[in-house]
Amino acid sequence: MECYKRWGADATNMNWSETYTALQQNTVEGEENPLPAIDAASVQEVQPYCSMWDAIYDCLFFCINEDIYNDLTPEQQAVVDECGQKAVEYERYINRSSDNEIKERWTSKNGVTFTEKSDMDIDSFKEAVDGVDEWFVNELKTQGYDDAQDLVDLFTK
Length: 157
Known about the structure:
By secondary structure, the chain is mostly helical. Helix content is 56%, strand content 5%. Strands 1-2 form a two-stranded parallel sheet. Helix 8 runs antiparallel to helix 9 (148-155).
């Protein structure tokens, strides 16, 4: 939300089940989700434009209870780590693999206009959010996360 604020947008969190109607009634002007998710919700019927900007990556987390993980043998931990990494890679693959098909279908069937990242002034977006990672670390620390910098570092590699 801080990024949107710095970009000059008045963003709001919304229940996904309300998004289609909100777009249809112009209560909101847009949404940000992976193409497969918005395709499944038929948002292309009420959203005539789509920007492929890759600014934010909504990820799925592969989680395991720390106590259970620590009780595993090093060999078992290595298997869990390897499988977790493979699950992450597969999630990214399935999330991106249908993008071209979706874009072609939306364009031909619904008349959606796509703006590709290469046609955008990405540098101005980057400049506007310069320092947001430090802001986020401070926010996490105020909530008691002493390892906030470590967490942010995992996502900025």
